[in-house]
Amino acid sequence: MQTVLVTGGAGYIGSTLCGALLKSGYRVICLDRLFFTTEPLKSYADNENFSVIKEDIRNVTPETFKGVDIVIDLAGISNDPACDLDPQLTEAINHNGTVHVAKTARMAGVSRYVMASSCSAYGAGSSEQLTEESKLQPVSLYAKAKVDSEKDILPLGTPDFCVTALRLATVFGVSFRMRFDLIVNIMTMHALTKKRIVVLGGGKQWRPLVHVRDVAGAFMTAMQAPVAQVNGEAFNVGSTDLNFQVIQVAHLIEQVIPGIEIVVAPDDPDKRNYNVCFDKISRVLNYKTTCSIGDGVAEVKRMLDDGKIDVDDVRWYTVKYYKYLIEADALLREIKLNGRLF
Ligand SMILES: NC(=O)c1ccc[n+]([C@@H]2O[C@H](COP(=O)([O-])OP(=O)(O)OC[C@H]3O[C@@H](n4cnc5c(N)ncnc54)[C@H](O)[C@@H]3O)[C@@H](O)[C@H]2O)c1
Question: 87 has which bridge partners?
Answer without folding.
Answer: none
